[in-house]
Design a protein that fits this description.
six-stranded mixed β-sheet, alpha+beta, 237 residues, five-stranded mixed β-sheet, globular, 6 helices
Length: 237
């Protein structure tokens, strides 16, 4: 878990080095259902009103970390409102990757095996830049495009945009946890829902007790952008 003050510093530095992500208005060509590899789930991401599309390289060095972050991201969002389209680049043998995805990484979500990289190329995505991520609206127009959410700034951008759009669409609490936004005055962050407070021993305690412990300097609040949990770290003299 990341201490609160450290998180603020990281976010501030991220903002200083931030390069505006591309904003596109063109329509994204979705993959055909024939490319979907289900495992034991029948989820259909293509019909969701909002969609996050990402390109994954099954042999890339960051694949473990990417799926870890995607699991955290998906766990903090309503899957009925948001679809996740994982475009997996064609490789020599799909069977080992299916084993890795569904068994080793325990992903309970389908992926789209982009045979011949036809979907990637049809949408003008670079096969040399895995981790590219696109946010689509209900008409499949590209709202945001940027890098992998394993990097802090794109992660926050996607979550913030999804939070705002789901609110506008009447989907209350479709996005939970920490929301970080860039404003003219700097960085603003808040919880979209009440956080859960947990001690170092794993005990869940009420918010008023946690607030009292923080004010008395008994605990230092630590948090992670991947969850809505605040870990209360004992302050050592």
């Amino acid at each position: 878990m990341i201490p609160f003050y450290f998180l603020v510093v990281v976010l501030a530095l991220s903002h200083l080095g931030y390069a505006q992500e591309a904003y596109e208005s063109k329509l994204f060509q979705l993959p055909a259902n024939a490319l979907k590899v289900n495992g034991n789930t029948e989820v259909n991401p293509l019909v969701k009103p909002l969609k996050l599309v990402t390109v994954l390289d099954p042999k890339g060095p960051s694949i473990d970390r990417e799926l870890e972050v995607w699991n955290g991201l998906m766990g903090s969002m309503d899957r009925d409102s948001i679809g996740y389209i994982f475009l997996v680049q064609d490789t020599e043998d799909i069977e080992p990757f299916k084993q890795y995805w569904f068994s080793d990484r325990n992903m309970d979500y389908p992926f789209y095996y982009d045979t011949g990289k036809k979907v990637i190329e049809a949408n003008g995505l670079s096969v040399d830049s895995p981790g590219q991520t696109l946010l689509l609206d209900d008409k499949n127009a590209i709202i945001l495009s940027g890098g992998s959410p394993i990097n802090t700034d794109p992660y926050n951008r996607y979550r913030s945009e999804l939070y705002q759009r789901t609110l506008e669409m009447g989907m209350d609490k479709a996005v939970r946890g920490v929301i970080v936004e860039h404003t003219e005055r700097g960085i603003k962050w808040f919880y979209a829902s009440e956080p859960v407070y947990v001690t170092e021993q794993g005990e869940v305690i009420p918010k008023n007790q946690a607030d009292a412990g923080i004010r008395s300097k008994k605990w230092v609040p630590g948090t992670s952008p991947l969850s809505d949990t605040i870990r209360l770290v004992n302050r050592h003299p």
